[in-house]
Amino acid sequence: MNTLNIVLSFLELRNFIKIKETKVLEIQSRSATLYRLTFKTKNFALKILKSDNFHSDLYFYTKFKNTKVPVPQVYFYDETKLLISLDWFVMDWIVGNNKYDSDLLLGEEIGKILYEVHSVKTNGAGKYSLVKGREFEYIDWYECVNNYLFKNKIKELNNWFNKEDVKLLIDVIHKFKNVAIKLPNLSFLLHGDLGLDNLIINKGKVIGLIDTGKWINAGHPLMDISYFFNSNETTSKMIEGFKKGYNQFNNFQEFDIHIFQCYQLLGKLSYSIDIDNMKRYKNKLNQLMQIYNKL
Questions:
Q1: pLDDT exceeds cutoff 80 at 30
Q2: Would you say residue 282 lies in a domain?
Q3: pLDDT on residue 51
Q4: pLDDT tens per residue, range 257-282
Q5: Do residue 107 and residue 77 come from a single domain?
Q6: What CATH number is attached to the domain comprising 36?
Q7: Is the overall model pTM greater than 0.90, yes or no?
Q8: How many domains is the chain built from?
Q9: DSSP per residue over 52-121, as a string?
Q10: Which of 207, 181, 263 is nearest to 230 (CA)?
């Protein structure tokens, strides 16, 4: 019996579906094997994860169940690997048309939603921890900056980057560290991969926030905000609306936002080299330079 059939049999035993009455459609996904299960008139998503996003997704969806943050409801999950050798969960399949008339209003709504996410304080920062008794890998934001966000990027420079660009990128990393450790040593829940591709939109409204990031799940809100501002799909009008919707946005300094944006683009440069896409690399480097020149 293959992996899919094992999970479907489990769901049938729990009286969740009837296999003979369930339509199964496999959907392409980078981080998971994703199936849409249609039972009677209801659609569900069965996600069998190839990567380590299981805990971040599950934690995020559970934390914001029945809140103002629109996340799918999770019905079943298994991290024991006793049933199959991979983590998996079943949740609602949220359907949208991804249509909206106003970038400004959409940005404002995204700002309101992200503010709700960032209202959750965390005990620790960084990625989710698999160690019992600890939610996140680092004790606090400062430790995360010094031992993870700073050191990892310095290592990447030695392994990946064009030597002609290294001087600029080292300056970005040091500026980021200097800014980050002057901010309050507080950590908040993050989405970690906020872009329009992880938002389900229907008739101009955000009805689903899905697919959290895997490399940072708690830290300073500017990690999420800068990532969203950098996204290719994010327009200037969306940013304008976001600033209006995100409560107390004016507490953030423009210089700090730009530094965080530059830092986030380092990850895009690394990925461009990893997939051997130099055109993408040059585009992201130009984007970084445009922001850096505003400092």
A1: no
A2: yes
A3: 67
A4: 999 999 999 999 988 988 999 999 99
A5: no
A6: 3.30.200.20
A7: yes
A8: 2
A9: S-HHHHHHHHHHTTTSSS--PPEEEEE-S-SSSSS-EEEEE--------S-HHHHHHHHHHHHHHHHTSB
A10: 263
